[in-house]
Amino acid sequence: MSDTKYTYAVARIRALEVSLFSDAFIEQLLACRNAEQVLQSVIEKGWGGMDAGNDAEAVLKCEEEKAWAVIRDVAPDMRVFDVLSYPKLYHNLKAAVKEVYAGMKNPAMFYDDCPIPGEEMYRIIENRDFARLPGNMGRTAQEALDLLLHTGDGQLCDIMIDRAALDAIEEAGRQSGEKIIADYADTTVAIADIKIAVRSQKTGKDADFMRNAMAECESISRDQLIRAALSGAEEIARYLEGTSYAGGAESLRESPSAFERWCDNRMIETLKSQKYETFSVGPLLAYLVARETEIRTVRIILTGKQNGFSDDAIRERIREMYV
Amino acid sequence: MSELGIVYGLLGAAVAVLLSGTGSAIGVGIAGQAASGVVTEDPSKFAKVLIIQLLPGTQGLYGLLIGFITLSKIGVLGGGLADLSVQTGLLILAACLPIGVVGLLSAIAQGKTAAAAIGIVAKKPDQFGKAMLFPAMVETYAILALLISFLAVSGIQV
Q1: Which residues of A touch B33 (CB under 8 A)?
Q2: Does A11 contact chain B (CB < 8 Å)?
Q3: Which pTM was predicted?
Q4: CATH class of residue range A1-75+292-323
Q5: Spatial distance between the Cα atoms of A250 and B37, rounded to a whole number of angstroms
Q6: Model ipTM?
Q7: Are A8 and B31 in contact (CB under 8 A)?
């Protein structure tokens, strides 16, 4: 019975959702005196592992791996999660292309918790074995490497690969056949486009630059966004007010960090309805995104405390929790 | 002709048991998947999720009950086959249909509701009583079908 193939997975996720951090616990973390106390609090909640010890970065990495391990364990089909693994996969591609071009090798530049880990990606690019890459990634890798070898322009190479990542996410969303995955992919691409528009407006980039960097998506018009970005920050906010991303307009006027926070909150908002689903892949996706948001929030608090930020300054960057 | 009557009567018993039993097996299976998911992460909830998992199993028992009554009625149980006319055989078959069809569909629906209710127990074990009520509501319609099948089979003069 295909409509019940996620029953076991969703029930297991429901049991795991109990241990997700609530907004109240995040407030407790904020009230900690220093980063060590924050780390201790999350370790007491079961974060980290035997190998991670008291190293904050190792604890956070361990949690990311745990979240993916659960999904790999319960998901009947991992392909629907491509939308989540593509950012890391394309990051690895970007890092590998640049390292092969520069003739150096730095394992710290890569993610290992994705379908093609750093070492393998480096070898693929070094040997120009592009056929081993999934989908259109091979063509993108070849073009990006050739571009970098001919022009030496790292930014152009970044734009090409980032754009390919957005196209791949959008395509994976459409191909998944799951509405929630398609919605998530569309929101991801739309938010990335909005961020590109905002940054391009600030740095005075032209329409061609933005057209090359932005991907097409259903929920916003790329051309209208580009036109708004060319007219100024206020025009971007005004354009967003007429879309389903109206909340972003207000945060955009407030501050860049408020806008970043709104972007993550918008994702969580998209996924909150999945708390009431029992037979679809949605709760699995929501759990993964919730875990990523949780880990990002703890990282923000840790970094804020380490650098002596005030509680208010950290709070402005705190993301909304899923539970 | 009388041989065909007994065949219809036996078919009625088979329909009651087969359909409702199949529905219960699917329903308990669906709920069982959800129960396994919860117990994988939290074995302490075993007893609560087991009770909810068993709820879609009742339709199979109702079908069994009607099957027994029908078999007794037509004399398959207790020796001596009754001499049934085709008309009486078809009446018995029709009498068995409510629990068969409603049993099949309601057990599947109840299994899905039970899986959702197990999700409630996973997150809020203190709400177990309320979680039980949602799949239990589906039971109402299986009981109504049982009642009609029971009255109909009992009322047919052999």
Answers
A1: 4, 7-8, 11
A2: yes
A3: 0.85
A4: mainly alpha
A5: 42
A6: 0.87
A7: no
